[in-house]
Amino acid sequence: MTDDPAGTRQATPERPSTPTPAVSVALVVAIVLVATNLRATLTGVGPLLPQIEHDTGLSPTWGGLLTTLPLLTFALTSPLVGRVSHRIGTARLVVFALLLLVAGTVIRSLPGSGFLFVGTVALSAAIACGNVLLPSVIRRTVPANRIGAISGLYVAVMGVVAAVSSGVSVPLANTLPGSWHTALAWGLVFAVVALAVWIPRIRHDQPAPAGSTHARIPWRSGLAWQVSVFMGLQSLGFYTVLAWLPSILARQGTTAEAAGWILFYYQVIALIASSAAPLLTRGRSDQRWVAVSAALLVVAGFGVLLAAPSLALLSVTLLGLGGGTCLVLALGFQSQRAADHTQAAALAGMAQSIGYLIAAVGPLALGAIHDATGEWTLPLVVLGSLSLLLAIMGYGAGRDRFLPTAGAHPKS
């Protein structure tokens, strides 16, 4: 029996028989080091944006594009990663991505606004590779009952590094020679350390044999779309809060300094939730109700912000708890719903392409709604409604099902 017209979901799933090796310390370290590079070069831009705009003469519109460009690059690059990985090998592609990240970071730090945008595109493409490859690496090398824990670990590491990068960027710009140019490049240390760990792993990594198959991106799968939209909606909520929460609070009389600390508190709560989420899913192949409950916390958070904006701390606590849990689930689904590691790369490519496109468009669209209405009421209603859709998608993506392997086709 099937409820998917495309035939991509099974009513009575049987987990594919794939090896479940023990998780080595070296593997965990390698995964974590990639994770340290997935946000460090991005989250420091926002605090430095006023200095960047002042020194380069960029308008606020171009400054906004600079912060949106990584998400658009993620959306365009992610679907290509699985095929390239199949051709050259995962470890080789990780090393190439880290080298591209180094080059892009250096280029972005050079004088001239053109270098700023070119470098941003290059390093964002490199980060997209890491975003897609980590679920594939985890699916291939981590036992099924440990996927949630390892996913939670690397999400927590991303969160810590992102928060540190946000916090130190301005002090570094005020202290180091080169001002914000140098501050934008401080994350290179993570890439260099990761390269030192991943280059030796190339020896044990081979591209797929000639004539072998690689998993097709599952565009026709209902389950894949549920995973992808879940990824997109949770990303939309997170990036919208980062972009607009200070403005929403300012409308209610909150000072800019207080709004900044509330936004910091939100990220801390999300980090705590993402660290604790694996405990909620440990031993659970069926994660429907965890996903639904987390999404409903997000609905409640936007509801409190709409109905009682004076309770901002309660609102962001709910948003952080729900959003942090949803992020771990969204990344975990990209491994757990795949039959093998090549399919995990294909599913991650689709989920992150759709997801980051939604994340890029969402804050812009909600900002336009605010500009048209002059209030935050309608945007918050829209966010609450989309969070209800997040719960529906989480119910579907959280089922103990996986994509079939019939979508594979010969390597071209």
TrEMBL record:
Keyword presence, tRNA processing: no
Ranges where the record places region Disordered: 1-20
Subcellular location: Cell membrane
Segments traversing the membrane: 21-42, 62-81, 93-110, 116-138, 150-172, 184-202, 223-246, 258-277, 289-308, 314-333, 345-370, 376-395
Membrane topology: Multi-pass membrane protein
Species per Swiss-Prot/TrEMBL record: Amycolatopsis rhabdoformis
Organism superkingdom: Bacteria
Extent of Polar residues compositional bias: 9-20
Name used for this protein in its record: MFS transporter
InterPro entries: MFS (IPR011701), MFS_Cyanate_Porter (IPR052524), MFS_dom (IPR020846), MFS_trans_sf (IPR036259)
Keywords: Membrane, Transmembrane, Transmembrane helix
Domain Major facilitator superfamily (MFS) profile: 25-402
Metal-binding among keywords: no
UniProt xrefs under PROSITE patterns: MFS
